[in-house]
Design brief:
Layout lengths: L3 H8 L1 H21 L2 H15 L20 H14 L5 H11 L3 H25 L15 H12 L8 H15 L2 H5 E3 H5 L4 H6 L10 H15 L6 H10 L2 H14 L2 H6 L12 E5 L5 E3 L5
Parallel strand pairs: 1-2
Antiparallel strand pairs: 2-3
Helix pairs in contact: 1-2, 1-6, 2-6, 2-7, 3-4, 3-6, 4-5, 6-14, 8-12, 8-14, 12-13, 12-14
């Protein structure tokens, strides 16, 4: 019997290592900054709101000391980021920044991890079967938590089971749901070269009734499910993706949604301004996973 964890390890072992590094670095960074308690509380809050299993500190980081900061303000910010990051108010944002001070960037990243990774695990379990998710054994990650997140950003684009057009449509749907100004303004040169059209991009907003491929429609439905109802994935959404996609493609859709959801940090902190005032900007992903902007579409 397979499981989400087993299939992920079989299909994308590099992604497993990258995600494990994120979880390990999360609790190592929290312990070093004295924020384990608030991160653990946010993990319980986020998962509880979504009906998911929370991430919890383990091993030598399992002892949770108190936090002398403004717990209520941070949890209010975390709650809004979990439920609808596009609706974070200026007041909530300012309160979070004031409460966390120099720890704001690290805590914003930590809140993202405890919000998004349980969604990833739940989606994979729904697609491939429930199973245990082993605790990471290493937390000595170069660059700490942000360095570990950069590892995810770089390893996921190296997967090649999905075609560039479907991957770009998945990215755009997530951008629409999180209302990331930068992400909404971008178009992939690889997708354009693979035949993506303006009509395809526009169809993202009404994909269920569109002429997009069954794979694209099923993938976009999973995007919505992971964003809005990750703890209660519609069996019809799951079965549609299983019917339209290979296991490797299913895994890649889930990981694409996970990687793309890093835009939640930028949106939450109002750091998501587009590079262009009008129209769209062409980007591409280099072999090392880095992004290049301002390209010619051809």
């Amino acid at each position: 019997m397979t499981s989400g964890a087993d299939t992920l390890r079989r299909v994308a072992p590099g992604a497993v290592d990258a995600l494990d590094a994120v979880v390990g670095a999360l609790w190592a960074a929290a312990a070093a900054s004295g924020t384990t308690a608030i991160v653990a509380l946010a993990a319980e809050r986020s998962a509880g709101l979504l009906g998911l299993d929370p991430l919890r500190p383990t091993g030598r980081h399992a002892t949770v000391a108190g936090w002398d900061g403004d717990v209520g303000t941070v949890l209010d910010f975390a709650t809004q980021c979990t439920l609808d990051v596009a609706s974070v108010t200026d007041e909530q944002r300012a309160g979070f920044l004031a409460a966390t001070g120099p720890l704001a960037a690290e805590l914003a990243a930590a809140l993202w991890v405890v919000d998004v990774l349980p969604r990833t695990r739940a989606a994979l379990d729904a697609l491939f079967g429930d199973g245990s998710w082993p605790d990471p054994t290493a937390d000595d990650v170069p660059g700490g938590l942000w360095g570990a997140l950069d590892g995810v950003v770089r390893v996921v684009p190296a997967l090649d089971a999905l075609d560039p057009v479907t991957s770009e449509l998945v990215r755009l749907r997530g951008a629409r749901q999180h209302d990331c100004r930068l992400c909404r303004s971008l178009r992939s040169r690889s997708a354009l070269r693979a035949g993506a059209t303006d009509e395809d991009f526009a169809a993202v907003d009404h994909y269920a009734e569109s002429d997009l491929s069954p794979l694209a429609r099923a993938s976009l439905a999973l995007v919505d499910a992971m964003v809005w109802t990750p703890g209660h994935l519609d069996p019809a959404v799951v079965s549609a993706l299983q019917a339209a996609a290979t296991p490797a493609q299913q895994v890649e859709v889930v990981l694409d949604v996970t990687r793309n959801a890093l835009n939640k940090v930028a949106v939450a902190l109002a750091a998501d301004a587009a590079h262009v005032e009008d129209g769209v900007e062409i980007y591409d992903i280099e072999p090392d996973g880095s992004l290049v902007y301002g390209l010619d579409p051809d």
